[in-house]
Amino acid sequence: MKSHIVIHAASLLHNLKLFRRLAGAPVMFVVKANAYGHGLREIVGVARGSPAVGSYAVDSLEEARAVRAVDARRPVLVLGWTDRDEVEALVAGGFETVVPSEEHLRWLQAAATKTRRQALVHVKIETGTNRLGLDPERAVALLAGLDRRRVELRGIYSHFANIEDTTDPAFARRQLELYRSVLRRVGSDRFCRHFSCSAATLLFPETHFDTARIGISAYGCWPSKQTHALFLEKNKGDLGLRPVLSWHSKVAQVKQLGKGAAIGYGLTYRTFARTRIVIVPVGYYDGYDRKLSNAAQVLVRGVKAPVRGRVCMNMLMADVSHIPGVKAGDPVTLIGGKGGERIDADMLADWCGTINYEVLARLNPLIPRIVT
Predict the structure, then answer these.
(1) What's the whole-number average pLDDT of the chain?
(2) Which of 114, 265, 285, 327 is catalytic?
(3) CA–CA dist 54, 66 (Å, integer)
(4) Is there a single domain that holds both residue 290 and residue 216?
């Protein structure tokens, strides 16, 4: 195979256990976006063996069905938007879903009547992100008039807008107070309260409530450099997250170039001296961003080799002039460690001006995932 992704099962189980202990509550494991690019079926196949996981969260009905096919024992919450023509199947399937508006609730009630099943809902409070959700006043009114014959309230939740990319928690604390104000007004009904994402769980124990929604950090990545720095400052030590994913390819061809030779489309790189390059059969179709052109590095024989020229749709080139003995078939590490060196998703994100979430989520679902 041209490239493959390795899923390190022990690392995932380790991270989930860490967050169960840290939150003092079950983990709502977020596996949307193909489990942040790791492979939904493979990741749920590992996570179903973890007592730390209380439930799963996904983006769509399609993802919910995929989770259910692997782990039918735990609840699955659809956090994303569900179109009207999917609501009936969602209710009939016994999946939990967000209520972001009064109109959406009417769709769910109609589906509950038609399927003769209660709709299992989590009401989302808009506290400052300004995405899906009800403002606090409308949410309180909706909750007061909830038809409990057709709708079962499973949860009330919200989501932080500015908790990762800052060291100032002021906005997050205002959001938390808005959320608490709704909880005070609706009483102590039996439902799940959840607000914490990975960053909130790491930094603010007061956000833990009844379950911790853990996404990026379950996969062994810090939500941001700011979150990592604040955690280190507060705890005087690291948490011990372990990356779950590594990505590997191989050398397809080795070429010797003379001085002044151009490499790749647009002639964006020219050699300064005699240069030996390798061609690696991975490109932006696979999720190796084109912005990594002339910026990133890969590991060849455990040594960092700079990417030269533009990343192509299905290929990239790297300079191995400083690495003796490289030959076709040698392993290439795109994400992961080899020989004491390491390239991680954060490094790729820095090189192409994005975040580790995007680097991982955009890994092509067709790349084989191997659980080890």
Answers:
(1) 96
(2) 265
(3) 17
(4) no
